[in-house]
Amino acid sequence: MKYLLVFAVVFVAIWLWRKGRRDEMRERAESRRNTPKVGAPKDMARCAYCGVHLPATEALSGPGGVYCSAAHRQAAAQ
Ligand SMILES: [Zn+2]
Q: What is the pTM for the complete model shown?
């Protein structure tokens, strides 16, 4: 009788584990379907000094526009 209880607990644990994995796999497949292969386009900025393109979030704004680095912002200011 004691072993039957242990068996039942193990069975339920395995069942829950498999169910969890199945949900996880379905979620992963859905997120893969919803996520585009290429990332969303980001706003690009062009360094006013060297002309390199970089994400606008990484650009440093200066007196003459945006710059790729503090060094170029400083060089453009001179
Ligand atoms: Zn630059």
A: 0.47
